[in-house]
Amino acid sequence: MKIELPSIREQQKVIFEKATREGIHQLKENLKAKTLPPQTEVDEALYSRNHLLRECEGWEAPAPEIVRAYFKHFQDHFPEYGTDKKLAALLGLSSDRRVREIKEGSRKAPYGVWRTFLVLTGRAPQEIVPVLAFMG
After folding, report:
1. Is 106 within the bounds of a domain?
2. What CATH number does residue 100 fall under?
3. Residue 109: is it exposed, middle or buried by C-beta count within 10 angstroms (0-12/13-18/19+)?
4. What is the mean pLDDT of residues 93-121?
5. What's the confidence (pLDDT) of residue 134?
6. Residue 65's CB: how many other CB atoms inside 10 A?
7. Is residue 136 predicted with pLDDT exceeding 80?
8. Which of 2, 43, 70, 130 lies 20 to 30 Å (CA to CA) from residue 136?
9. What mean pLDDT is reported for the chain?
10. Domain residues for 80?
């Protein structure tokens, strides 16, 4: 008895297609997220809005006051992420110490971490990168 299996390349394409369908589903679900009132901890008009830009558009790390306000607002509405440790895990940071350093301003928020937070909170859209070819 001989069992024909698809090539590794064909298997990878099937996995890619499944993940793409799941991604499309998630993007549609994201449109159904609840709308919350804006944060009221700081007057955002006093700060640059460059922390909302993409890196190629002139992004600048947010001021610590913005970070603290956004994080507090998020944690007030999502108690399951109410500790710095849980927020760090959500954002892919190695420890809660990193969250504290970013909040206090001794460390600037890395672009990828901040962008993830902006996407999670509906302040920035997810970036979809085009696939130019299947190689390998």
Report:
1. yes
2. 1.10.260
3. buried
4. 96
5. 85
6. 16
7. no
8. 2
9. 95
10. 44-120
Domains in the chain: how many in total? 1
Q: What pLDDT, in 10s, does the model give residues 21-75?
A: 999 999 999 999 999 999 999 999 999 999 999 999 999 999 999 999 999 999 9
CB 96 within 8 A of CB 23: no
Distance, CA of 86 to CA of 67 (rounded, Å): 16
**Residue with tokens 């008895």, as numbered in its chain:** 1
| Distance, CA of 81 to CA of 75 (rounded, Å) | 6
Task: Give me 35's structure tokens.
Answer: 């709308």
What stretch of H or E contains 21? helix 8-30
Across 124-134, average pLDDT: 92
Amino acid at 31: L
Question: Which DSSP string corresponds to 20-83?
Answer: HHHHHHHHHHHTTPPP-PPP-SS-GGGS-SGGGS-GGGT--PPPHHHHHHHHHHHHHH-GGG-S
Confirm whether 35 is domain-assigned.
no
The count of other CB atoms within 10 Å of the CB of residue 38 is 7
